Amino acid sequence: MQGTQKRNMEARQQRSKILKKIISLIGIVSFSGTALFGIANMFKSGLQESQQVETVEVVSVEERLQKLAQGYEKVLEREPENVNALEGLVKVRLEMGDKEGAIEPLEKLVALYPDREDYKVVLEGVRLEVRGNNF
Predict the structure, then answer these.
(1) Distance, CA of 99 to CA of 19 (rounded, Å)
(2) Of the ranges 34-48, 65-79, 89-103, 113-127, which one carries the lowest mean pLDDT score?
(3) What does the pLDDT read at residue 46?
(4) How far apart are CA 90 and CA 118, in angstroms?
(5) Mean pLDDT across the stretch 6-16?
(6) Is domain 2-134 in CATH 3.40.1350.10, yes or no?
């Protein structure tokens, strides 16, 4: 009887080892599959985000320039001779491509500081560009 019990015990241990190996294999396969899907999704979403960021950056630069221009305009409503606001408005409008809109604050700067040649040069250059575009 001991021989039978011993064989049964060895058979159970053998089945137990096989079952443990199968469960371990299933666990490894499950973990690997989950990790691969996670990595694939990470790369996929990374590519999609980079495409979306490019579009958002273009919009945000334009919006930022618009907000800056509005801020300078509000300052000039309170302080029409504020040099920093006038210079900032000129710079922002030129960056936005609004050369005609840059002429008025440049004229104010030239009127306030007639000795500043740089204001005069920029004003004349902008006027020439506006005239050239109108023809």
Answers:
(1) 79
(2) 34-48
(3) 64
(4) 13
(5) 86
(6) no
Which residue ranges make up each domain of the chain? 2-134
- CA distance linking residue 88 with residue 121, whole number of Å: 17
| Structure letter (DSSP) for residue 80 | T
- Residue 104, helix vs strand vs coil: helix
- Give the pair of three-digit tokens for residue 56: 């958002």
Strands (E), the chain: none
Q: Are 108 and 93 in contact (CB under 8 A)?
A: no
Q: Tokens 């440049």 — which residue?
A: 106
What lies within 8 Å, CB to CB, of 119 at 6+ separation is 106, 109, 110, 113
pTM (predicted TM-score)? 0.56
- Among 76, 131, 132, 79, which Cα is nearest to 105's? 76
- pLDDT tens string 46-75: 666 555 555 556 667 888 889 989 999 999
